[in-house]
Amino acid sequence: MGFEPRGLATGIGSTPFQETAEALALIKECPPEIPYWPQLPLRGRQQHFVNQFLKPLVKTGLLTDDGERIFFDTTLLNWSDRLTGFYSLYLACEEGESAVLDEFSFPEGAAEGFYALLAEPAGGTGSAALLKGQVVGPLTVAFQLKDERGRFAYYNEQLRDQIVKTPACGTGLLDRDLPDRVYRLAAAVSKKLREEGAAAT
Asked: Which of 16, 186, 10, 24 is nearest to 113 (CA)?
């Protein structure tokens, strides 16, 4: 299937709603040709990009959440072990292991809009020609998350690498779970993320 947008509109992802049904109703009406999965930032911390896209960094203990802030604590005694755990997951994801790909999936509580779109009749496509899936950009993350000393993660090559690789693997979920009739953007997005990461180093 060729990609011929011809000026068709879509959205960035974030919507001004707290309820998924309201967001989906707007999306079906406004960009009906290329609907996207709605994010609900007004719900607060639950919908934070860390909870949506960076779960592997939390699970492997590289990101610390103390209830007030979320940050990288590189002073932890077992930091190297945590790095090993993360990169083991990443390499398995690169090999296409389906079970590991689930580790990079969006938690339902944090990405309710994604699963609601998939649950719609015909996988949310209706009369649409395409579906748009989005992941957080590495620069957005790297200039919001900090280390234990309050320095932006962007300026730490190791942290920046983790930030690039995590959402890049998340694009594999979009490629796997969005319906077959949808133009597959995941491979192109994944490549772009890696190129941005390489250019930033």
From this structure: 24
